[in-house]
Each structure stands twice: as structure tokens, then as C-alpha cells.
Amino acid sequence: MARFKRHHALPGFGLTMGFTLCYLSLIVLIPLSTLLLRSAGLGWSGLWQTATSPRVLAAYKLTFGASVIAAGINGLFGFIVAWTLVRYRFPGKRFVDAMVDLPFALPTAVSGIALTAVYSANGWIGRHLDAIGIKAAFSPLGVTIALTFIGLPFVVRTLQPALEDLDMEVEEAASSLGANRIQTLQRVILPSVMPALLTGFTLAFARAIGEYGSVVFISGNMPMKTEIVPLLIVSKLEQYDYAGAAALGLSMLMISFVILLAINGIQWWSQRHRAGA
Amino acid sequence: MSIEVQHISKTFGSFVALDDVNLTVPTGQLVALLGPSGSGKTTLLRVIAGLEQATPAPGIDSGIRFHDEDVSHTPVRHRKVGFVFQHYALFRHMNVFENGAFGLRVARPRSRKLQIQERVHQLLALIQLEGLAHRYPSQLSGGQRQRVALARALAVQPKVLLLDEPFGALDAQVRQELRRWLRRLHDQLHVTSVFVTHDQDEALEVADRVVVMNRGRVEQVGTPDEVFHHPATEFVMHFLGQVNQFHGRVEEGRVRFGNLELPFPQYAHNQDGAARVFIRPHDVTIDTKTNGLPSIQATIERIHSAGAVVRLEMRTDAGQLLFAEISQERFATMHLTYGGTVFVRPRHIRVFTDDYDNCTRSAPLSI
Amino acid sequence: MAGAASLHARATIVQPRAIAEPKLVRWTLIGTTLAFLSLFLFVPLAAVFYEALRKGLSAYLHSFTDPAALAAIKLTLLAAGIAVPVNLVFGLAASWAIAKFQFRGKHLLITLIDLPFAVSPVVSGMIYVLLYGANGYLGPWLIAHNVQIIFALPGIVLATVFVTFPFVAREVIPLMQSQGTQEEQAAMTLGASGWQTFWRVTLPGVKWAMLYGVILSNARAMGEFGAVSVVSGHIRGKTNTMPLHVEILYNEYNFVAAFAVASLLALLALATLGLKTLVEWRSAVALAQAEANPVVQEKAS
Description:
Chain A is mainly alpha-helical. Chain A has 13 helices and no strands. Chain A has one domain: MetI-like (MetI-like fold), CATH 1.10.3720.10. Helix content of chain A is about 80%, strand content about 0%. Chain B is built from nine helices and 21 strands. The two termini of chain B are about 45 Å apart. Chain C is an all-alpha fold. The radius of gyration of chain C is 23 Å and the shape is globular. The chains are: A mainly alpha, B alpha+beta, C mainly alpha. The interface between A and C is large, with 113 and 111 residues.
């Protein structure tokens, strides 16, 4: 009978609910709705023109391309990091574990200049890359590096609980049935943590698409080459092209919604999957 | 402080949890609300406490009175009830002492520290947990938590004490102990108390009066003796202890069931019709030979002799399962075996019939 | 979408011998982990302090005597000092309404509260420009009444409030939900008022989750760049927060000063991680304590 409203003995529902809805509307909903209103001012053809101008298309290509690659790198190495942190003991592990959240805690501007300093042609790492002819900073590779940094915690932190929850008896069963570790990984471990891995990948991807601060320093911001969509929004705003900026912002918001739906879909699918197991 | 419940109904959506309940709890008594889950007993307790509001019934004089004072619209925090929750609901971030002091502190934030200390320690002595004042709930056993919850409720000197399944979450042995302890405590304090239980033994052993509830209605109110020996309805008959039920008829002042026909003077002037006949397992005599007295012939299917009494499961020729309880002494003299034939003679039966207007009448018959 | 950070105590699982990897594999994986994290985390972090101290300690300390730097530090503290408490109050109010009562549309409400995480920082700032900017919907009215929001403190605070909006709520709501309403009901029967119940019973039960949310939102509030950058106008000494000041100094090739201010922010980040780990540990202890009261679905009987 838990579905019935049974808690009215407690006071304060009207007050807290009213405050929540007012505050949510004033801070989030009404300001966000301006995106819709402004872009609507452009009309369909205007929207289409804004969204398909060559500079915008190039920015989208770079933003999505670098985000997918960065999320992919995080998927692979994030799995290894999470696995190591869950399964092995090594000196300094607690410290390493805590540091995984650094990209959350470090202001993006600081990450941006730090990565630029390290990966530019005379930086600690960029110097060695430069020696073998790879230009890291001020290139699409630099964008990818920044986005990898920013997405790292998402994959690791979604994978860790999933790996902890893995029933080790299943692995023992697999090995008792003659599977080696590689086969166990392929057939037992990966399938069970796949929803978490996909969720982490998607979260990292979503964060990467909108990222601004850490990218603008390392990318060099060359139109058509290393210009990302958020930067394009800022430059449109600086030219007082509010409608154009709103249209781009709206498109990014839509993409975020699709990604949110995808994450919910993954979770729904994995719950169903688990319930059936 | 007496409690009076008048015409109280409570619905959750389309589910009727309480259906026009009336009840009086006399001052100083310990009363059990007994019923199966879903019978409305916990809801009734929560309505008395003010944790739930009764569904208003227009045109009916309904309400809750504490000693003639209408408290229906008094919010829970001003009702001065002591409520003991089924899962204790101890404040987990407070130790035993702080739990006990909570009610005193919120009532008079400026009250003297010493007074509070004295009162709480007095209560901890009462519940025999003086040494554990600084323990946290997680460091206590289930029975200890239960007692702390009770002490916390008593600290504010409630007018009435309400307990929701007070022993429900405890294991059997602790239950037994706490039951007797609660009874002794009540005899000491004489606070008008109502407790909810689905365990008939608990209700019959502890309470002064038992209120049997079913489907949101009160089936019967009475002393443990009354409800056990003189059940008012078939539900009470079924709910309090095991019972054998037969479908029979009442005709011309005689009752017929199985292969038996007995004179039944109470129903002499009654309309003829269907009847339900109930026999408690301990109200039968078992014989291996027929001795001419009216009896039901049956075959023994099972014998449970490990216990204070020996319980028999038998099947009548008509295929009905029949339960009986006999003493160990009698069992020792009888040489009963599986598959053996016995004659079951009811000593005491209870007959329920439907009246013209579908009212149920019941009458006992001793044979 | 900072969905990955949440209050969660971690443990090492001891692998039984039969399914343990060979030593070589194990150390290769550990090595890979450390190398990857070094490349992306440790080396850049070290670079911040290295660059800041490159020209010696006195040059480093001298950077902080710049009035513009001090103004930036002040503004950052002010913006966070407003945004974090306001969002804390909101988070607690929303948690009470959502966790203690049943109503239609609860899931939608939770999703809407999480929404700011899904919005790009630049867009988060832009929406306030569209609303309050000179060419925004309320712009003309604001100019007529001589109120400046964009390119001023109110705009910076609004953008900061937006990006830190969900932090406290999303930590506290699930915990409050899992704790049920039994203790609150008990407090009411003992004569406590609504406020007394909240302060003495509910709040102590969620304090670690609340603190966790505050720590995370404070870090974000002080470090936010994209959203604030759009609404600030970059007026030196006036509307520059620390991250914006870092950008300006960097673009002026004043690297030592840029990294000096950045090093303060990096220290803030390290302190945040330290506190966060401490709270995770404390809340694990509190959780063990909380097992006293198993939360059981209430039944109507």
C-alpha cells in the first residue's frame, strides 16, 4: 500500500514544493526557454542556414570527432584504470584513486593552460612529440587531449561500482569450466560491465561536446580547423548575433537531450537484462 | 485516560482500510488490536495517534476522544500520545540517552539539564538499560532497541501509549520475554495502552481486552476469555486457534452435519436452513471403539506426539480432514496407529446460521 | 553532467588465487594505469606549480600583489559565497518535498533538477545574456531602470548558481529517500514541530551527503569558466573571477602570474579532493551506524 500518500502527518510540503518549483523556473526553465524563443525568430530557413554554414559544419565535425575519440580512449584506458583500482593493491593506490576526480575539481581554465604548457612544442611532453613530427597543441590532437582529460573520471567512476559488484564466483566458475583469463574477460566480465562502460562512455562524450574552458587554450581556435562549437557560440555572441548563437545553443541542448535519453535507455536495457538473468 | 473512537472510516483511494469503526478503551487498560494483515488495525492505531486523518464522513458524528476531549483535529505533536513504531524508528544519530531526552528537549528547549538527566535515567532504570545510555541504536540488540523506543515514548508522560506490532521484528524467545515484561510494566504504570498484533497468543496472553478486526471492521471486543470461548463471528472462530468446520443444516430444532444429528433446542423456533458447524480440536473425545454415542468415524493420517498435547490428523469417510488434540496420558493408553479407524465424538460445538435478513446467528451446544 | 561523482565508499576486492592474473600482467596493467594518469593528470598538475615557480618564489608571491588579482580572488569568493548557500537551501527544500512526500511527476522534477548538468557551460551563460543582456528580452526594461545584470556581479552570480544548481539536491535526495519517514513520524509523536523535526532528526541524518554536495558545488562555483566568461564582460579588476583572470594573464603572455593564480585554484582542487575523500570515509562510518534502522516499506494494515 506504499503507493498511497501516507506521509501527510509531516508538514512543509506546500512550502518546500512551492519554493522548489519557483526557484527551478526562475533559474533554469525560464532562462533556458529563451533559447527556443530566440532561435524561433530565425525561422526554419534561417535555422537551416546557420546550422549548415561551412564554419559551423567544420566546428561540429571537430567537436564530435574529437569527443568520440576522447571518449573511446577513456573507454579503453578507463577500464584498465578502474580494473587496477578495484582488483589490485599497489603503493599509493588511495592517492591515485582520489586523484581520478581531479578533472572534476580542477577549474577548466587551469586544466587548459596546464595541458597547453605540457603539450606545446616546448612543453615537457610536447617536445618529445614534436621531435617525431607530431604537433599536439594547437591542432585537433590538442582538442582530443583536453577532452580526454575532462572525460576521464566519468568512465572510471561508473565502471568502479560495476566491477566491485561483479560476482567473483562467476569468474571462478568460468575458470573451472576451462576458460583462460582472456576468455573469461571476453565472455564473462566484459558483457556484465558493458552497460556501465557504455554509460561512462556516453557521459564522457556528453561532457566533451559542451566543454569550453580546457579546450580554448590548447586548440588555437583557428576557424575551420580547430574551432569547437561552444567557441563558435561565444564568438557569435561577441558579434551580437544572438539568434545565431541561440540556434547553435539549442542544437547542443537537443543533442544533450538525445544523449540523456540514450543513457536512460542503456540503464533501462541493462536492468531488464539483469532481471532476465 | 480513556480513548473513544466513534464512527471512524479511512479510505486510501478505493481501498477501504477502516469501515465505520467504533471502539472504547477504558482508562488504564491494556488493549490488543488483533487481526490479519490488511485488517486495518495499524491504520486505526495511526488514526488514534493522529499520524493519519480519518476520511471525513458528512452527516455522521465521528471523532476521536481522549477522556471526553475531542482530539480529532489536534495535530499529532499536541496529542500527547506515546507511539512505539514497529521498526522502532530510533534516531540513529543519537545515543540511547539522547533518544530518551528528545521529547523533553523539544517540548521545553530551555528546561534544566539536570531535570532531563534525572527523568531519562529514571526511565532507563525502568527499562533496565541504565548501563547503555551512551550506546547508539546500531550497537543494541533488537529487544534492547524495542525497550529504548518504549522509554522514549514514555519520557513525555503520554496520556495514552500506542504500540504498533511491538514484538513483530523480534525472534521467538525475546518476544516471549518482552511480552511478560510489557504486561508487568503496564501493571506498574497503568497508562491506557493499545497495541497492534497479528499474533493471537500475544493478544490473549498480554491484553486486558482484545479487539478482533477484519477488513476494516471490528468483529468482536471482549476479554481474552470471551473472544476465545465465545467467538461472536465465524471470522473470530477461525482466527483464534485451529478449528474444524462442517457444512450442515438446521432442521426442526436439530442440527445435522457429517453423519451426525443432534438435538439443538436453541434453534427450535428457527427457520430451517444451512448451517456452519465448528469444533475446536481440543473439544473432541477420541475412541477406538464406538460406544453408541453420536460420533464421526475417521481414519488416522498423521500423529504429532512431540509436544504438550498429541495432535491427530484424521480423514472422515466423506473425505474431510479433521484435527484433534488429546492429552499425552490418554494417547499412551490408546495404541493409535496410522491408518487405524477411530470414532470422534464432539463434546462442544458452535453453530452459525443465516437469519431471514441474512444476519448471522450463533449458538453453542455442549453435548 | 557531473554524474560520475557520488558518495560511494570503495573497497579493494581480494581476488582468489584461481582467477588472479599472473604477476607480469598485473604489473603491466598497474603500469599502464599510472602512465595514463601521469600523462593526463599528474604531469599537467605538476606543470601548474612548475610554471608558477619558474622565476622563483618572490616572482610567484609578487603576482598576488596585483590589485586586479586580489579583486578577482574577492569576486570569486563572493560569487561562490552567494551561489553555494542559495543552492544549499534549494537542495534541502527540494529533497524534503521529493523524499518525504508522494506526488505525480516526481521523476520529471528530478530530471529537471539535473538538467543544468546536461547544458554546455557556454550555453549556461548565454541564456542569461539572452534574457538580461542589452539586446535581451528584459534588456530595455533593465536599462530604463538602470539595473545591470550582465557584465556585472548579478550575472556572474546567476551563471554560477545555474552551473552548481543540482549538486546538493542530487546528493541529498537519494539518501533522504532511502531513510524513509519513520524517524520524522516518531519525532512528531514526541511533540516536535516541523522545524524541530527537520533540524534535529532529518538534517543530522543527511549531513555528510549535504557536505559532499557543498564541497563539489563550491569547487565548481569557484572554478567555473565558460558560463561566467560569457556573462562577465572581462572588465579587469571588476568583473573578472579568478579563472577569467588566469585567461587574461595567459593571453598577455604573463605566464608566471597566470600560473600563480592557477596554482591557487589547483590547491583549491586538491583541497576539494582531500575533503571529498574525508567525507566519503566519514559517511561510510555513518552508514554503518545507520544500519540500526532497516528501512521497511510501510504497509497499510
